[in-house]
Amino acid sequence: MDTAVTAQKKWWSGGHSPFNVSYGKLMMWYFLMSDAFTFGALLISYGTIRFMSTSWPDPNEVFHSFPFVSHTAHLPLVFVSLMTFILIMSSVTMVLAVHAGHMRDRKAVAKWMVWTIIGGIAFLSCQAWEWTHLHELGAWWGHNPFANEDGTIASTNFTNFFFTITGFHGLHVTSGVVLNIVILANVLKGTYDDRGHYEMVEKVGLYWHFVDLVWVFVFTCFYLL
Amino acid sequence: MEHTHTGVVHDEHGHDASTKGIWKTFWILLAITIFEVGLAFSYLEWHWMPRLFLNSIFVALTILKAFFIVAEFMHLRNEIRNLIMTILIPLMLFVWFIIAFLADGDSWKNMRKDLAPGKPAPAAMHVNTEEAHH
Question: Cα(B62)–Cα(B81) distance, rounded to whole angstroms?
Answer without folding.
Answer: 24
